[in-house]
Design goal:
Blueprint lengths: L1 H11 L7 H8 L4 E8 L2 E9 L11 E2 L4 H9 L3 E3 L10 H4 L4 E9 L2 E10 L9 H40 L5 H15 L4 E8 L2 E8 L7 E9 L5 H8 L3 E3 L5 H6 L18 E8 L4 E8 L7 H35 L7 H12 L7 E6 L7 E8 L7 E2 L10 E3 L20 E7 L2 E7 L5 H32 L9 H18 L3 E9 L1 H8 L1 H18 L5 E6 L2 E7 L3 H17 L1 H6 L2 E8 L6 H17 L12
Helix pairs in contact: 1-5, 5-6, 5-9, 6-9, 9-10, 9-11, 13-14, 14-15
Protein name: Diguanylate cyclase (GGDEF)-like protein
InterPro entries: Diguanylate_Cyclase, GAF, GAF-like_dom_sf, GGDEF_dom, Nucleotide_cyclase, Rev_trsase/Diguanyl_cyclase
Organism: Oceanithermus desulfurans
Length: 639
Amino acid sequence: MEPLDGWLRQIESGGALDRIWPEIYRHYGYEGVRVFDVHGGTAELTFAEGGEGEPLEELKIVARPWDGVIGRAFNSGELLEVRDYPRHPDALPTRSDFVRSLLVLPLRFGGEDHGAVVMTMHTRPHPGLDAGQLQELRILQSLLSAHAALRRQRRRNERQRGLVAFMDEIHKINRLDELVPVLFRSLSRDVAYNAVAINFIEGASLRILYGVGESGQGPRTIGEAIVPFEKETLTHLVFSSGEPLLIGDMTDPMARQMYPVRTLDPEPERDEPELRSFLAVPFESRSTKGVLSLQSMRPWHYGLEDLEHLVSVAEVLGYAIEHLRWRGLERFARRLGQLQWRAGEEREFFHQLLLATSEVWNQLGAAFFVRETQESPFERIAVTGRVEWLPRRLDPVSLHLEQPLMFSRFRQLPEVFQSLWNPEKMQGGLLLPFGEGFIWLASARGFTEWDLQLARSMMREIRPYAERLGLQARLAREAALDPLTGVYNRRQLDQQLARLASLAARHGHVFSLAVVDMANFGSVNNRYGHLVGDRVLARVAGLLKQALREEDEVYRLGGDEFVIVLPHAGREEGLHAARRAAEVIARDPELSHYGVHANFGLAVYREGDTPEDLLERADREMYAAKKRGLTVLEQPLDG
């Protein structure tokens, strides 16, 4: 009993058991030992020494405890001694070639299987154990069983503490993309794996997040993709059934026949070892459904305990997803409420509004486009992130935007928006209407139906600001326009000329303007009345806008005089614009009926010019052209 006393003290002290396994099998006259740790219906070989035909480096193999003689011992729960193993009816053919005798100590406690100690003879049959030795082994079996049950309970407690720690970490993070490394760390702590995938099923899309790495080291996040939800995958099988799935060995022919579907390879280009075990559980929240899956290179690596733990993790994951998504919307609304709209600081407000969207999405970048009217182009007035490819302006288009639009491919975009897409960087775009403009969000990974749903919720938050922008734009438009002709008024002309003169002085830009006088207009008022005269002036204004370039602008100076401002145009471009406008006016039948035609006077910006200098010089040229019976002077008065 002296060796037994030492073993019992070693077990009771909680020391490492690897030291006693060699002593046990040698003491009872055996040549080798195999120790299995059972959890969830599978048994993992945790220690091996001795034995012919079974290399010691293959310690990672996994056995099924219900097979053969070992299975018989598990079913009975009793110590089992087999002296002539090859002749035993339950002997496994693969082992009978080199095992002569076998002794199995199944470890069972509280109605659960916890493992087995298997001693083997290979060179000759074992002579058998006497009654005293068998009694010793039964005492050892009882203590080892209790010790194994205690270790299992400790493991369960550690996993429960891991779940509590996982929930605590969730409340410290703010974004969905921050959840992934937290989840990976939690899994790495509690369940060994070589690959992990979180699949968010959102409508017809599957958002996949992959991680690979050895357990305990933390996973390496290797990518995220949004792909069509394909039915030919194990993920779809788990999702459609709503039940967990555990496959002991995916390379086994029986498993291939039972599950003739494929798994998504996270890195097909990498020369990774073949993944064998597969464990997946579904999860669900109010806004999304999904599948959490683990894979291991070791066959029969996962058991029922792992499955039960992963089910608990999935429940926490579903809660976390819902919590973080709506928390992002809450932070967006809170940040929006802190913004202040001050006159003259609209661009900074829009920039802050774009930054607020990053509370919801980890986006590649965002841009704010706005236009004055549906006929004017969209101007880019604010950007955030890496969006250097975005255009400064978009062509005007008659487009009524009331709801967010989601795009996953370039071809889905209306032509006017196609310049917003960068095929080298983007996988998705989201457009949020905002008054006479829109917010454009670019994503490197894409958007799904959930993001579209969230964008609709955000629209309710930003609608008051959009309405304010629309009201402000309308008031500004009304203040800048001449109510009779619909072109810009004298006040707006002064502001534009001051701005262009400042730009020209700083950067050397050239620009010009033309004063337009409607000859014979006084007779229209005298002969036909002021109502007809007003209609004629509105007609002239419309024809001038029609004849000019997109960047040129028309202003009413007063009475029957107009001013055309021509950015980036010198004398030659100005002459060309005047001739074109005069021709359009001359061909108009209504103006011809009243005998109205136009005279033009040009002035090109010179260094030091004020707006008044330009208008005075253009006015002199217009009167000189009118006096000489010309539409416009080919050469300036001052040479």
